[in-house]
Specification:
With 443 residues, this protein is an alpha/beta fold. Helix content is 39%, strand content 22%.
């Protein structure tokens, strides 16, 4: 068999390896960590994930959709919590099927690793941290001293990829940019109620928007919620300035009063869990010489505010799988990788931009009456003009046939249309629908 080496057995690496194995390639998959099914997932650093139509489209291709859906909890909308504990529901879509699905990163990774082991032509090697890749010789060096010769290497080793770092040193005109937000995140927890029941309604993404920062909570199968505080790293109100138990309790009781009674381990979680960074990474080219290519966060890491980092990475795997010939045919890897980047690059740029924009929407806009009115008008336009008007969030989450780049371009036109229709309007009934019809037709 022709052999492909893959560095990184996280979510994207495991799925990419499965796509390769199904095409008949022998796959050698390397992972820097120990086997998480034995060692347990490292706590405190991961944000709960959502899997949406794009990710589900990819796992469906390899027969894993049903298994994955068993470990998800559907969320049909945002539940907004104001500073007095009052809640407002904002649906994600209009159809019963238009939900996003909360899923544990650790449980999903374990499921994919189990699936990896079902392929006799796919071997996984744990505790193998990649140190360097030599483009000329094709040799991958690991921290334990082992060197492995490769013909084709795929780097799926995450935001701070060792494979990408090696390409940066060796590939002429390699462009690289990383942009950190001034905010970081800390993982917290809302405990399950007695009997393993949920302490809040479970089929929602709960958000406590507070303009320059926010708290979110996603449901888990055990009845708990994984909470994430997105907060400035430095300044008067920041992780740096909030150092004592008294400061933490005062802040949470004042700003998130309805959450505190549900968080018995608040202080323990706050001081034990690290502050994580939020980074957008852009680079080009993603491949070199038909020998090496980057997928997922290694090529286009994004911030988590559109819930699309994993879904975009899974979409990478699907697209690459569609471009691959079977192992019995001759593969022109340089052409395959070039076509892959051509199809994916503009889309990765678009979702990176939309994820940054959605941070502002989630923390600042969701509680704004004008935003909520535009959301209602967008839903009404979708009902009145089906196929002609699909709101941006719906395009990204529920329409995998619409590429990210097209969704972004259409949403920019929609924003102008909604601004014009909602100018001077307070209610849905006041909207000029004849004008709306003309505007939609013009666009």
């Amino acid at each position: 068999m022709k052999t492909v080496h893959v560095v990184g057995s996280g979510l994207v690496g495991s799925l990419a390896a499965i796509f390769l194995a199904r095409k008949g390639y022998a796959v050698e998959l390397y992972e820097r960590r120990p086997d998480p099914r034995e060692a347990g997932a490292a706590g405190g650093r991961s944000i709960n994930l959502v899997i949406t139509s794009r990710g589900l489209e990819a796992v469906r291709k390899v027969g894993l959709e049903e298994k994955i859906m068993w470990i998800t909890i559907p969320m049909k909308g945002r539940m907004l919590h104001d500073s007095k504990g009052r809640t407002t529901y904002v649906p994600y879509g209009q159809k019963e099927s238009e939900v996003i699905n909360s899923i544990s990163r650790g449980e999903l990774n374990n499921l994919l690793l189990d699936a990896v082991e079902e392929y006799p032509n796919l071997r996984i090697h744990f505790n193998k941290r990649c140190r360097h890749y030599d483009l000329e010789s094709g040799v991958v060096s690991f921290e334990d001293g082992e060197k492995v010769e490769t013909e084709v290497l795929i780097g799926t080793d995450g935001s701070f990829s060792a494979v990408r770092r090696s390409m940066l040193d060796q590939v002429m005109n390699f462009n690289y940019n990383q942009q950190f937000l001034e905010h970081g995140y800390k993982e917290l927890r809302i405990a399950a109620a007695p009997g393993g029941k949920f302490a809040m309604p479970e089929n929602y993404l709960h958000i406590w928007p507070r303009e320059s920062y926010m708290l979110i909570a996603l449901p888990n199968l055990d009845g708990s919620f994984t909470c994430t505080l997105f907060y400035p790293l430095e300044g008067e109100q920041s992780f740096a300035s909030m150092q004592t138990s008294e400061q933490v309790l005062d802040f949470f009781e004042r700003v998130f009063p309805d959450a505190v009674p549900l968080m018995p381990s608040l202080l323990e979680d706050y001081f034990n869990n690290p502050v994580g960074s939020l980074v957008t990474i852009r680079c080009s080219p993603w491949h070199a010489g038909g020998k090496v290519a980057l997928l997922g966060d290694a090529s286009h890491a994004i911030v988590p505010f559109f819930g699309q980092g994993m879904n975009a990475g899974f979409e990478d795997c699907r697209v690459l799988g569609e471009l691959l010939p079977s192992a019995s045919e001759e593969a022109d890897w340089a052409s395959i990788f070039a076509r892959f980047q051509e199809e994916r690059w503009a889309n990765s740029e678009a979702i990176a931009d939309m994820a940054l924009e959605n941070f502002v929407e989630m923390r600042d806009s969701t509680a704004d009456p004008d935003f909520q009115l535009r959301k209602k008008v967008g839903f009404e336009l979708e009902q009145r003009f089906p196929g002609s008007f699909v709101p941006r969030y719906s395009m990204v989450m529920f329409h995998p046939e619409i590429p990210y780049a097209e969704a972004r371009a259409r949403s920019e036109a929609q924003a102008r249309l909604l601004a014009e229709l909602c100018h001077g309007v307070q209610t849905l009934e006041q909207v000029d629908w004849k004008k709306a019809e003309r505007l939609v037709a013009a666009l």
